[in-house]
Amino acid sequence: MKYMWEGRFKDEILNEVIEFTKSIDIDKKLAFYDIKGSIAHTKMLAKVGLLTKEEEKEIIDGLKIIENEIKKNIFEIKKTDEDIHTAIERRLIEIKGDVGEKLHTARSRNDQIALDERLYLRDAIISIIKGIINVQKALLEKSEQYIDKLIPAYTHLKQSQVVLISHYLLSYIEKLERDKERFFSTYERVNILPLGVGACSGTTLNIDRKYVAELLNFPKITRNSLDTVSDRDFLLETLFNCVLTLIHLSSFSEDLIIWNMDEIEFINLPDNLCTGSSLMPHKKNPDILELIRGKTGISIGNLTGILCTLKSLPFSYNRDLQEDKKPLFETIEILISSLNILSKVIKNIKFNTEKIKNSISSFTLATDIAEYLVKKKIPFRKAHKIVGEIVNYCIKNKKDLFSLSLKEFKKFSKEFEEDIFNLLNFEKSANLKTSFGGTSIENVKKEIERWRENLKNFSIPILVLKRKSSMLKKLKAKK
Q1: Which of 40, 57, 175, 390 is the most exposed place for a label (fewest CB within 10 A)?
Q2: The predicted structure's pLDDT at residue 357
């Protein structure tokens, strides 16, 4: 047998057709998941009497031999192997003979690939969540290191108000937490068994999908065969989560790239996490951060590509879906590697705190002055106008807010008193922002403590084990 579907065809298939339609170079990454699913499928076939116990033993033994060959990198892929499913089945028949031809009973490659992808994504999502947590922990450690140090916040790439460096770093922990929550939510929709619906309609054979779900730790089983083989929502959702997480990493990287500029030098990056120039001996480049930014663009393209592939597919399965794996694998690998390398960058960043403080414009205190006037019962819009006029006066006279006298302040409002000078202090400006979510040291300390507890007590394996345990109980109760 050259091809598992060759019985229908009278003429020899052109080599160009086989080369054009094959996907094994990409989907061989799913080999171990394919074997895992095949072992569970074999056990189910034996349970319902479609295989004898001896046949079950022979097939599983053959699959484990193939698994070992793949581990040792001695598994041979042949020209007739269209995909990893056919390669494994072909090799099984070579090892075990006719009994190997029974493996594909009550199964199509349509539901088989959906299973492999879901098994792969369960592991991938857990790896991603672990990577997110590592970055969060690195940000938390850096927040504690620079807990009371200042940095200007920017809006429109212009200095806006003073914040604590720790407050800035904690903001990315928040973004990553939302990313983590999205992945956990998606995990629930990935974690549904598709195997057993066949090509698109189910089967006349007396299979037991619940038993397969129990063997593979799936809490739910798909309910509609047409939807099952056509569905890639779970894959799109995972891809979107990856892209949004990468957008957050890219945004953070962009900040660091700007702050690393010679003209700014808010941060120093370690030599062992930078690269140099082939021509210019003096260069020390933040290539890791630039590549995170660049790879994010590639990942956005991958997501867009799959969206375009799916937008007009008729029901139910179409070969177009073969093209979902390359962008999926690439994007997941980009995200995992970006998380891993960025956690190392964060741990080794040094903030030039004195240089940062000396670069802060006195005008970052303008909003504080407006709120000072509000406390003097001046309507905010009027206070805004007064302080805007003070800023214009400073610019015209080449002054900053620190150099103004009380007499000059009073030119703009009689409400100004000596206490205005107590306000003209960057540390005080940051630490007076005590409203919930603000940048004050009081708030930041509480947030650091909260995150320390959250991240310390977080354990993915325990959560997954608990989930598996509850899955099995639910399945057994339904029997």
Answers
A1: 57
A2: 96
> Which residue numbers in the chain have pLDDT < 50?
462-463, 465, 468-469, 471-472, 475, 479
- CATH, range 109-358+454-478: 1.20.200.10
Contact present, 190 and 176 (Cβ < 8 Å):
no
Q: Which residues contact 448 (CB under 8 A, 6 or more apart)?
A: 140, 143, 144, 147, 166, 170
Q: In 3-state terms, the chain is what percent helix, strand and coil (to 5)?
A: 65, 5, 30
- Give the pLDDT of residue 297: 98
Catalytic residue among 156, 278, 282, 435: 156
- Among the listed residues 185, 277, 403, 469, the single catalytic one is 277
Predicted confidence at residue 477, as pLDDT, reads: 54
Architecture of domain 362-432: Orthogonal Bundle (1.10)
Q: Is 273 exposed, middle or buried (0-12, 13-18, 19+ CB in 10 A)?
A: middle
Please report, for the chain, the start and end positions of each structural domain, with discontinuous segments joined by +.
6-102, 109-358+454-478, 362-432
**Residue among 377, 236, 222 nearest 306 (CA):** 236
pLDDT reported for residue 464: 54
Query: Is 277 noted as a catalytic residue in this protein?
Result: yes
Measured distance CA(51)–CA(59) in Å, rounded: 10
Evaluate whether 150 touches 364 at the Cβ level (below 8 Å): no
pLDDT of residue 16: 77
Q: How many CB atoms lie within 10 A of CB 48?
A: 13
Determine the pLDDT at residue 8: 65
